[in-house]
Amino acid sequence: MTAISPSIVDDYALEKQTTSKFNKDLGQDEFLELMMAQLKHQDPMEPMDNGEFLGQMAQFSTVTGIDDMKESIEALTQTYATSQTLQSTQLVGQEVLIESNKLSLRDTGDTEGVFELESASGNVQMSITNAAGEVIRSQGLGDFPAGRHAFTWDGNNQQRDRVGPGAYSISITSNHEDTITAATVMTSRIIESVEFGNGSDTRLNTHQGEGLSLADIRQIRQSSVNSTTE
């Protein structure tokens, strides 16, 4: 019996499929070809119902529209992220107000901020506490209408002695129709640097060592020596 040469077997062997020749995704061209073939080979005695045909077209248009919308949203997200990055870089060195009751007192000078009242209030009171939670200064600010108003603390305690620099807390309350309400307090920070992450993940580093986002900022204003930072 004559042996068969391996080279002959290799010559007549089926070609190996290294990659798939089939595309699982049905694109617009494939859909239209399929639709035309369906119309061409339909039973003349029972043609496709117009409603069914329009329904298939509407279904395909919906899928195509969703894909286009997805691409538009992705492009819009990228544009927003780029815009946010540019805005963030312009904040370096700027003073911003955030919703916080934390104050930072320097060796000299005042510290200031803003409080917000939902309605007109009388007998607005300001209290300053130190890191140990002790009230070191209480002061009446007077009557105010609804809205935002500035406050200033000179850095002195109740005995009018200058306290040391560092972190303090402020509480502002209002009396409206014999109801004591805590006002929303906003204090200032200086943006020292900006860190960029993926997409819209941007971190604003403050002089006080805090990390903020653009959503935390309530107001941007020109930096001055009478800020709440050192």
Task: Give me the secondary-structure topology.
Layout: H1 6-12, H2 28-40, H3 50-89, E1 95-99, E2 102-105, E3 111-117, E4 121-129, E5 135-144, E6 147-153, E7 166-176, E8 179-182, E9 184-196, E10 202-206, E11 211-212, E12 217-221
Antiparallel strand pairs: 1-9, 1-12, 2-7, 3-6, 3-9, 4-5, 4-7, 7-8, 9-10, 10-11
Distance between the termini: 100 Å
Shape: elongated
Helix share of residues? 25-40%
Assigned CATH architecture of the domain at 95-221: Sandwich
How would you concisely characterize the structure shown here?
The chain is α+β, with helices and mostly antiparallel strands and 230 residues long. It has a domain at 95-221: Immunoglobulin-like, CATH 2.60.40.4070. It has helices at residues 6-12, 28-40, 50-89, and strands at residues 95-99, 102-105, 111-117, 121-129, 135-144, 147-153, 166-176, 179-182, 184-196, 202-206, 211-212, 217-221.
